[in-house]
Structures are given as structure tokens and as C-alpha cells.
Amino acid sequence: MASEKHILLIGAGELGTAFLPHLSELPDTHVIVGVRTPSKYSQLAGPNISLTSLDTTGPSDELAQNFAKYDVVISATGFGQAAGIVTKLAKEILEAGKLRKQAGQGKLWFFPWQWGVDYDITGDGQGLMPLFGEQKDVRDLLRAEAAGAYVKWTVMSTGIFMSFLFEQFWGIVDRQGDNITVRALRDWDHKVTVTDVQDIGKILSRVVAEDMEAENRVIYSAGDTVSYAQLADIVERVTGKAVVREEWTIQHLEKELAKEPDNLIKKYRLVFARDGVWWDKKLTVNHKLGVPVTDVETYAKGLFGA
């Protein structure tokens, strides 16, 4: 009989709760959800799901000893973290891997919070997004520390969450009553990769289950990769309405940000108008594994009730 695999899932927000049902279905697996106040998430507990108190801002030596108890650690804490936490966590994981090796246990498998764009390319967004820069630093840390001796790590770049593409505050698909405006970041040929959060959980569980060739490397997922021209066509097709098309060039986005230099959404828009935010679906892990995923048109049909 196979020994039970213990997975620590850090965080129970939108992404963590999307991961949970897929991870908990894996055979011979117990998922422990690490949150600050377990009592607030008691509804998540199940036959092979339990909760534990975890504060990622706590002392590093204690956290490293805690992490060493698990076979897999998956971070789903999101962007609401204080500066330095993702780097702190990566260092603690490396220490936990050393502790496991000293105890004669197998390597710890680490999935850092990298569920987004390709931070190797975006970097810190030319100074606009320090947390993006920190994500790049975490990748460099894992590579440079010869983590393979103690830890195997997998970064999964997912693009943005598919729901985000249609959020009103993002301003790309802007619905004002019966009128719809679709805006292009940079130009109409510029592309964006998106993955639905449920699909991210589905793909992640397959990667964990099959222990596929994902050790110490970046892998990619995509529910879809579309140009902004294709997005506008999709919205027109699904809604049956002509949409207004508006192009936000990099120069326009720079001018808009200059008016409000602390506006986070305007920073995001400018970064997403640059490179590192899309990749070919045929190069993704979900394509290679044959995992069915939601594309933009299917998602839009559900959103618009088509």
C-alpha cells in the first residue's frame, strides 16, 4: 500500500479554495490547509482535508521545521502579502528541505506563489511592480541555491485569471448598460494568456499526481491565449452586439499613469501592455497532458448568459 502523501496548501482564498477539491481527490493524499485562523474555514474540512494554524510572518526557524513535515508545499497566498514574504517563504522551504534530508526523508516539493505572468520576462515591470520583481528574485534564488539537492520546485505560470479579463475595474471589457467597449492594451495584435482558477487547480493536481517532468523548472498553463482583436470579436459574437473598440497604446497608458502615479490598476495595465504576459497554448502543460480547459469564448457565454 502506498504511503499517504501530505500536502500543505497555504491559503484559502480564491485560488486556494479552487485548488482544494482537485488536490483532495488525489489517491493516498491528505491535504492540510494552512491559514491564520482555522476556525473561520471549518467548512473546508473533510475526510482527507484538515486545517492548521499558519502565520507566514512568523519566525523562520519554526516555519522551516513545520514545513519539513510535509511532502508537498503549495503556496496560494495571493498578492495581499507584505513585501518580502514570498522570499522569506522560499528560504524557509530550502531550510525545510535540508531538515528532511538530514532526517532521511524524501525531497520536499515546492510550488511557490507564481500563478501569474512570466516574471522572468516582466521583472519588476520597469520599476512599477516591486512584487513582480520579488517573484523573479524567488525564481533566481531557487535556481542559484542548487535546490535540487534538498527541494524540487515547480513554478506554474498561468497568465491572469480568466475572470479578471472581464472585471469592470480592469476596463478591458467595459459594460455600461447596453453598451460594451472592448479596449486593447498596446495594440489589437497584442495578446494575453488567461486560465480559469478551477482549471489551474485541475492542472496542478495532474502535475502532482503524475509527478511529471516538472522538477526545478517553469511550466505553463493556458485556458486560452487571445489577441485583443480576437477578444473583441468574441464579445461581439457572444452578445450579438457591436462593440466599441478603443486602443490604449503604451504611450496613452504612460500618460494616464503619470496623472495618478500611485494607481495600482494603471500600473498593471502598463505592465500587461508589455512582454511576458502570453504564450502559445500548444506549449502548455495542460495541452501536453490533454487536460480539458475553459476557453475565453466558453467563459464569455457563461458570463453573458448566451
UniProtKB/TrEMBL annotation:
Origin superkingdom: Eukaryota
Residues annotated as domain NmrA-like: 4-260
Keywords: NADP, Oxidoreductase
Gene Ontology MF terms: oxidoreductase activity
Classification via Gene3D superfamilies: NAD(P)-binding Rossmann-like Domain, UDP-galactose 4-epimerase, domain 1
Pfam families per UniProt: NmrA
Name under which the protein is recorded: NAD(P)-binding protein
Organism the protein comes from: Trematosphaeria pertusa
